[in-house]
TrEMBL record:
It holds the Pfam family HscB_4_cys. It is found in: Cytoplasm; Mitochondrion. Belongs to the HscB family. This is Iron-sulfur cluster co-chaperone protein HscB. Residues 1-22 form the signal peptide. The gene is HSCB.
Length: 215
């Protein structure tokens, strides 16, 4: 992952999500998961649930089915596969999924369903956190398009950007009033929007090309 100094700077800008470092790889081991490739319900052997959509439960016996690990986070969270996401919608979806699969609702159910609910809940949490923070969302999007960013990769920071951050840090240190803090906050927000828009544009242009590895 990126260097600590860069991480600290990005954290200032709210671009560095918590919990990204050490996040386990996104590789799917769906094939090794018993029952995941089978459309049948593990409990009653019924036709099971369609791959797409929100059929987490068997329509016949209502048993919770195992998570589909081949489904990407954008699909799970019902978001367009793009850098720009509607975070309010993402949050609603997160709450909706929590209400369906949270382990608290399975305390009286079979051990198998308890285990599945744990897996669903972990997956939903990971998906939500990954898509909520711009940096992890961008990296995940790149990964879906086959672009891997190696651990420990560091990037030379734009000098002008560094200067801007230093200026803001100075202003923050000197800020004496709430009004001054609010002013700094609005500067940071504007800059953040500008940067996000740039990344969004780069994704739209880059992903239309055969390779996005060059930007
Ligand atoms: Zn069933």
């Amino acid at each position: 992952m990126w260097g600590g100094r860069t991480g600290a700077l990005l954290r200032v800008w709210g671009l560095w999500p918590a919990g990204v470092r050490g996040r386990r790889p996104l590789g799917c081991n769906a094939a090794s998961l018993a029952g995941n490739n089978s459309p049948q319900c593990w409990n009653c052997g019924g036709p099971g649930v369609p791959k797409r959509g929100d059929g987490f439960f068997c329509p016949q016996c209502r048993a919770l089915q195992p998570p589909d690990l081949t489904r990407d986070y954008f699909s799970l969270m019902d978001c367009n596969r793009a850098f720009a996401v509607d975070t309010a919608k993402l949050q609603n979806r997160y709450q909706q999924l929590q209400r369906l699969v949270h382990p608290d609702f399975f305390s009286q159910r079979s051990q198998t369903e308890k285990d599945f609910s744990e897996k669903h809940a972990t997956l939903v949490n990971d998906a939500y956190k990954t898509l909520l923070a711009p940096l992890s969302r961008g990296l995940y999007l790149l990964k879906l398009h086959g672009v891997e960013i190696a651990e420990g990769t560091d990037y030379a920071m734009d000098q002008q950007f560094l200067m801007e951050i230093m200026e803001i840090n100075e202003k923050l240190a000197e800020a004496q009033s709430e009004a001054a803090m609010k002013e700094i906050e609005s500067i940071v927000r504007a800059k953040q929007k500008e940067l996000s828009d740039n990344v969004s544009k780069a994704f739209e242009q880059g992903l239309a090309e055969p390779s996005v590895a060059t930007w």
